Amino acid sequence: MLSAIWLVPSWASAQDAPLKQLSGKIYDEQGREALPGAVIRALYTGHATVSDADGHFELSVPDTVGHVVISYVGYGNDTLTVADLSSGAVLRLKPARALGEVKVESRRKSTEISLLSTAKVEKIGSRELMKAACCNLSESFETTPSVDVGFTDAVSGYKQIQMLGLAGSYTSFTRENIPDIRGLAAITGLTFTPGAWVESMQLSKGAGSVVNGYEGTTGQINVEWRKPFAEKEPTLFLNGYQNSQGRTEGNLVLSKRFSESLSTNLLLHGRSDWAKVDQNKDGFLDQPLGQTFVGSNRWFFFDKSGFEVQGGVKGVYLDNTGGQKGYKKGMEQIDGNPWGYRQKIRRVEGWAKIGKVFPEKVWKSMGLQLSGVYHDQQSSYGSRAYNGRQQSFYANYIYQTIIGNTNHIIKGGASFVADNYKESFIGTPYNRSEYVPGAFVEYSYNYLNRFGLVAGLRADHHNIFGTFVTPRLHVRYAPAENSVFRASVGRAQRTANVFAENLGYMASSRSYILSGNAPGKPYGLNPEVAWNMGVNFTQKFMLNYRDGSFSTDYYYTDFTNQVVVDIEKPGEVRFYNLDGRSFAHSFQAQLDYEPIRKLDVRLAYRYYNVRSTYDGVQKLKPLVAAHRAFLNLGYETGNNWKLDYTVQWIGPKRLPVRFGNDHGEQPEGDSPSFVQMNAQISKSWKEGNLEVYLGGENLTGYMQHDLITGADNPFGHNFDGSVIWGPGMGRSIYAGFRYKL
């Protein structure tokens, strides 16, 4: 601090002094290769620049500067006088003096946060995903404090996520930066990506890049699949899973690398739920019976000239049956018969990525992303039927280059999104088509890895909602080598799919009431528009010769319009445009440290304050826990045993007024807090080619035993399986194996 204060006068005087222009080109010792990215820094001032792809640089410095230092990785620093550079000198750097070999070994963390990226991104690696069963995306966040996971209802078995206190539909899901889970698949789509297919995930909170679109109010989760051209990717990967609740799964990934340029992989998944489980003894299955099949084939081509092509197809087939234990397919849904749940989904996706990187100008590239989706979903909850069909097309062209040097990067491009929806709810059709062409530009600036900025702006024209603009800004400042402050702000807009995003309320006798006051718009509702702003701090440290990190973040989401989902009145779920305020405050603190060798400890605390206006009254959003505490322990022995343990404390959640089993109304109140524990032990052999694992979920066996109100009369007015505040299933023990060749 004292040295910083001492430098202030000299910095101020240097800023006021007349400037002179320096320029030159930097090459290797033989003068054959230009050195792009070399740092040219004036001594004792903050003036610096970086050489461009041709080794050229220009730098303005005050007259008071006498010397300039030039540095480049792998080469020795060179200190020159200003006179040496004033006339466009050609400079040659000598390689750094070779030293004796030093071998440095370190354990790569299962979750990492880069200190260099302008936005805070949590990279969740395959080791993190293997700490739990991770059968699909909805179950892949059990050891990630940033994401909450809970059941949608007491019948379908689906889980949904929350980020920043808001539903998963406000999070942008991408597969290798192509939009993936959206539209009618907002809830069901999390089960369409098996965990065994996932190589890693990148999770970022708050406003994302305008390059990826105008949606994503609370953040983005990008999923990277296993890649056949990866150095350590096996030719064969086989995974099997079985749990004590009658769930059997299998995954197969075959990879083939034909040459350095061409490779492919085939990914297959099958799941069967075959046991009738009713742990809370309410006469309803805790999870439906059924089968799910998912298959995908991908191809990759990389040419030495920098031309790249990727393409793939994916198919999903799902058939589930649930409800009361006595229900069978085809039973008429009338009073006196068992209440049943049915769902069939057929989905086909295709995508391609075509790109060009210029080897002689590595900072210059262009790419085209294409994807198409056909999604058909047929559901029935008792006598209530909901069917939906979605046909979507997406195209995104991106061009990237630099302005002067690699400190200034600019991206620009255009996109087009087309969605055609045909929905039917209790016989009433809800059809619409949306077409959204748009264009964007994004500028990135970096100063000596100390300061970074990404500013983006996009404009889109919606055929129903008209033209709108999406600005976004990210700023990064590193006061020290291992300390980073970041801030972000941005706007997001989306169309709410009120039926597909609120399937859980269909597992009840609640009436769906659409009170939209915007004729001609989807469901009579305006688009959801929100501003998200946040700040975060990351500090990495070394204590007792072991690495650790501490991070904290705060985000505020403010809706200028929201489709309010109102369950404040028993027997109803209402949808209407926001009239008042709706906002969400989110705070999280997290500590990761390795107190003893190979023991990883993660501690976290999270606080939410999420409020909306319901019929003119501002209230806490129901079924959202304000407080959550988290502990994860992971230990690995020298002979390839791994032990993982996670415990969470989930605080009370506000419960709205609702019907009771006695047909009377239960007053508004709070749910009890509870603790959940998960654990897993695994052992690998033959250099990791074979691994077996044994684990347990919800080991305390804690359950919300009043999952379904009026379970004895499901066709009655007080039937409700949608007010879920706790675990919907009891203790589950599972076992499985992973084999690679």
Task: Please provide a written account of the structure.
With 741 residues, this protein is mainly β. Helix content is 3%, strand content 57%. It contains two helices and 46 strands. It has a 22-stranded antiparallel barrel. A six-stranded mixed β-sheet has the order 8-9-15-16-13-14. A hairpin with a 5-residue loop joins strand 33 and strand 34 (572-577). The two termini are 55 Å apart. Residues 1-17 and 98-106 have low confidence and may be disordered.
Topology (elements, then pairings):
Elements: H1 2-16, E1 19-27, E2 39-42, E3 48-50, E4 56-62, E5 67-72, E6 75-81, E7 89-92, E8 111-113, E9 122-125, H2 126-129, E10 148-151, E11 159-163, E12 166-167, E13 171-175, E14 178-179, E15 198-205, E16 219-225, E17 236-243, E18 247-257, E19 262-273, E20 289-302, E21 307-323, E22 340-358, E23 361-381, E24 384-403, E25 405-425, E26 428-447, E27 451-462, E28 466-480, E29 483-494, E30 511-514, E31 528-543, E32 546-561, E33 563-566, E34 572-577, E35 583-596, E36 599-614, E37 617-620, E38 627-636, E39 641-650, E40 654-655, E41 658-659, E42 665-666, E43 669-670, E44 674-685, E45 690-697, E46 732-740
Parallel strand pairs: 1-7, 13-16, 30-34
Antiparallel strand pairs: 1-4, 2-3, 2-5, 5-6, 8-9, 9-15, 10-11, 11-12, 13-14, 15-16, 17-18, 17-46, 18-19, 19-20, 20-21, 21-22, 22-23, 23-24, 24-25, 25-26, 26-27, 27-28, 28-29, 29-31, 31-32, 32-35, 33-34, 35-36, 36-37, 36-38, 38-39, 39-44, 40-43, 41-42, 44-45, 45-46
